[in-house]
Write the structure tokens for this entry.
Amino acid sequence: MGLDSFGYVAFGADELYARGALFSALRLLHYRPSANIKVLTDRPSVFDGYPIEAIELTARKKTEMSFGDRYIFGIKAAGIIQLLQRCDRLFFMDTDMYPVGDISSCFSRISPSHSIMRKSEGTPKAAYRAIADKGFLLGDYTLTGHEPMWNSGVLGVHNSNLPALTDAYHAIEQMIGVVKVHTTEQFCIGVALSRHGRTISRHRLPIRNYNTRGRKLFARRRLEAFFAGNARLGVSQQIEQAARYRLWRAPIDLWKQRDIWHF
């Protein structure tokens, strides 16, 4: 059996992304102490001292990956490729995803012909109709804009699909300035991993997230408090503290946020 890795891509001026990846990784280590974890990040020092491989993401690489700073989510797409080059099977999560149970069974569902993603979102938004007659290619396939959309907040993929992900990455660039939404990264990945007999299914693993405005506001405060209060502890103690720490909102927290009502 080859190397199975969990991976994150964490970058940006807001340290929330790096801290979110670290918190998620600490929970991973609670449920699976032997987990191999890699983070491609522009803040590698955040991960110093932890059993996590931090791969530095330089400013120059971020510019290259984002097609000259034209599409920021190109960094995620290219980053996933870079992580997958270092393992046989990769289970990637966005930095606002974190496990609430053992998710290591994910790897048994990843094969050259099958990937797992967060969920199917069905027919993409009307903005994708703009590519219908453009002749945009994903590998040898002409995109129509009607292909099913898969959410890439979670992605389990086999190393043999590197060519498909590379095709997806090149297809993304064609859409810059044409498709007026930010989801072309996940659209192209979903199409690429559905071609040539490959299939995708929903992950159905014990994973929570804070990817809406209200959840993120609450999680930001909780993460700041967690690292302020636990940074001096040893790694094993931080892992145990993270396992018991709540990022989701109780009813009273929702009531306190009633002025925004973003759930």
Observations:
- The chain has a mean pLDDT of 95.
- The CA atoms of residues 121 and 229 lie 38 Å apart.
- The longest helix spans residues 213-230.
- The first strand starts at residue 4 and ends at 10.
